Amino acid sequence: MLSQYLKNVNSRHLMGSTNVLAYTLHGVKHTVTATLHVIMGHIQPVDICTFSSPSKLLRFGFSAMFGFGARTLALAEKHRWIPPNQRKDFAVIRSLASLKPEECELSFLPLNNPQQCFQENDRMKKDRIKKSDSKDQWHKIEGHFLNVSIMAIPCLCAMAPRGLAPNTRLNNGSLALIVVRNTSRADFIKHLKRYASVKNQFNFPFVETYTAQEVKIQPIFKSGYETEDHVPEEGNYPWNIDGDLMEGALEVHVRVHPQLINLYGVSVDDLDDSKATCSCL
């Protein structure tokens, strides 16, 4: 399954609408730059995640969003007849107009020292995971959330010069868990606008960030809940995984696999002199 996924990495990530993997590996969305990295043999180990239900492996991926980010993508997919740039703005504005939180339960296994994971070999990682896999070390939070992001890489792009998850790296073995609790529409828009600037997008009382190695999300389904544009059925919620829409199971388990794959590129910490291109906010 991993080999099949990697065959599509170029088309989905390097050449997608946000190009987060291209920006994070190369600093720009430039075909010649990517080709030069291949010619020069710049190999970069990269963390990747598995997304699983209680019964099966769903897919591999680098980043995921649940809540606003997923519903915006689901809405955009329903209106593919609209030109791409206009469709993106339409979906964001429409989702903001019908903004509603998701009630769910989040469990995560914290990672206290990402640098330690970066320096460990495979045997040391396995031993540490066995020792830390006790139930009492899992943290649990419940509530109403507007958006939940789980990122194994910084996810730099033109719309987020600092990255969607600036506190993580390409291969430090950590997941950035970003939780946006229920708040007013005006405050949520302020949070979104921060992504397009150099200001800290997490400096809000309703935004919480954690560093984890595993995350479990279990939405609390309520019969009769629906929105105008997307009606979730029990056990079927939208997920935005690397820009692909996935109708996920009621419970999704995300686990990071440190340096599982090698890609051509280098580690890019920041994009300098980048301007946001989203005109919808």
From TrEMBL:
MF term (GO), any: lipid kinase activity
Top-level taxonomic group: Eukaryota
One Gene Ontology biological process: sphingolipid metabolic process
GO cellular component, one term: membrane
Domain Ceramide kinase C-terminal stretches: 62-281
Any single Pfam family the record assigns to this protein: CERK_C
Protein name: Ceramide kinase like
Source organism of the structure: Crocodylus porosus
